[in-house]
Design a protein that fits this description.
Elements (H helix, E strand, L loop, with lengths): L9 H15 L1 H7 L6 H27 L22
Amino acid sequence: MQVLVRDNNVDQALRVLKKKLQREGVFREMKMRRSYEKPSERRAREKAEAIRRSRKMARKQAQREGLLPAPKRVERPARPPRPAALA
């Protein structure tokens, strides 16, 4: 995985790297590998994850088709404009 550092802004590059690792599931994988997981526990966990994913997909599909109400959107306050020097 590669992240470019622009204008010596290492903090922003670290934030981007952390977000990419989070999206890929690296932190979750590291946490799971800290201790041994029995094969039966692994099968049960993977089955539960698959059920959760399928239910989520079915719920999203029902919302798209209008069978379920869409979740309420949270209105966030608008960000103040950034100075031209930083943009």
